[in-house]
User: What shape does this take?
Amino acid sequence: MRIPFGVSVLGVSLLTAMSLVAQDYPKIEVPIGFSFVNVHPNLTPITSFNIFGGGGQFDYNIGPVIGIKADFMGYTQGNGLKTRLTNQGYTIFGDVQGNLFTYMFGPQFKKHSGNWQPFAEGLFGAAHSNTFASIASTIRGAASTSSNNNAFAMAFGGGLDYKVGRNVQIRFAEVDYLYTRFGVNGTKYTGSQNNFRYVGGLNVTFGGAPPVPPTASCSATPASVMVGAPVTVTANGSNFNPKHTVTYGWTTTGGKLSSTNTQTATIDTTGLSGGTYTANATITDPKGPKNHNVANCGANFNVNVPHNPPQVVCKADPTTVKSGETATITASATSPDSGVTISGYSYQASAGRVSGTDTKATLDTTGLPGETVSVTVTATDSRGLTGTCTVQVAVIAEIKCVNIEDWGDCTFEKDPKRPWRVDNDCKDVLDKLALRLQQNPNGKLSVVGYTDEKEVVSEQTIGAQRSVNVKYYMVQDELGPKVDGSRIEPRQGGTKGKATHFYFVPEGGLCQGQVVEGTPVDENVVKGQSRTAAPAKKKARKAAAPPAQ
Assistant: This one.
């Protein structure tokens, strides 16, 4: 009943393994094969003997290295043990059997990558045998109440598998130290047995990730060339067995390949029409598994036929003009490609105005300052391709000058005590002058103050005071229209009478020979005075010293 039970366990294990989904390592391992045990019964004079058999194992991997293992083995012994006892002088009554069954469980540690896969194990369980009862009955003349004995068993060891396929491995060797402890009922015998076990056969695996199919990638460098230029194509494979040598095969939809059986090839594009072409590669592993040893890829490359743009030549006549004058721009364009015509011209200027759509255009420089104007000519051919050229025209600005304007004067005659005071008559003149200055926002007013020749020498600064007082009134004194003080410049003139004269200087350069009369007054020295300012007090004369006695 024990052997059929072991067979049923193996059957259940196989059915369970087939139902598992793929993992990145085998989920189930079922080793089956031949085994023998070198038994050391620890009974004198029989020191050791061999028993032969086999069985199966079941390993459930809970991780990429560790698994839980069940081990079921059965062994038997023929006439060898009986013959050995007879040779020792023992009288044999009936059969002397030497069978052994082991049922052990424990962890297995295994390397699941590569072709050679070593493993180690530690198993614990039970053993069943009638060998020791038979030996004890023969050599001691004692009969056991039971010819079958059960004992504790454990095994420590390891082995080596070789992977020959996805689900099949050869178990070259599994070598274990097998420990059992049997006793015989009705005798004083109980001992430990230190045995040696060998197992060899096949290991069938289930589950695990399916093999990754090989892939290939192709590239073309450069991806776009002019006709006649070479293109280099390269194929790279992935997921092939690195220990195998792969082969390459190339085809192309256009051009001539330098090689058809290398990883990299060159394509000659001479004579091709413009368009897109494809180079295809096939990478093969001759030693690889069927249906998983070939990968294909393709790479596109563009071939361009030359399309040359128009070549344009342009010139300006004249190349230098005064502002406001015109220059003529002449252009001529041709295409280096045969059968192509020029369909039109366009012009663009960096300044000024340019007009024209044919081979000639006119540049108008009206209003331009002195600068260099760039005119770009664009010619378009019948295919829509364009070419350009640029010509430059120097523009000379017209130099303009300004003239000083005479805006009249006002006199200082009515106040002999304050000959510098702005009187009412002068006030009316200045009010009108302020309004006029406001209406001309650009330019400055020069106020030139004069001194009468009859005024004493000590009063020669009266002219400067008069011009400063005029500015004071127009900027801040009393009511009336006012102007920005920075636009009024007081100046001191000569001896032309008791008056101030007004000159308006427009913005810009003065024309040749134009100068403003007088010299600027230092307003930090000569301060402006209000119309209501009192006359300066005269200093008292010192009494003359009495004549000497």
Summary: The two ends are 181 Å apart (CA to CA). The domain at 215-304 is CATH 2.60.40.1080 (Immunoglobulin-like). The chain has five helices and 29 strands. Confidence is low (pLDDT under 50) at residues 1-23.
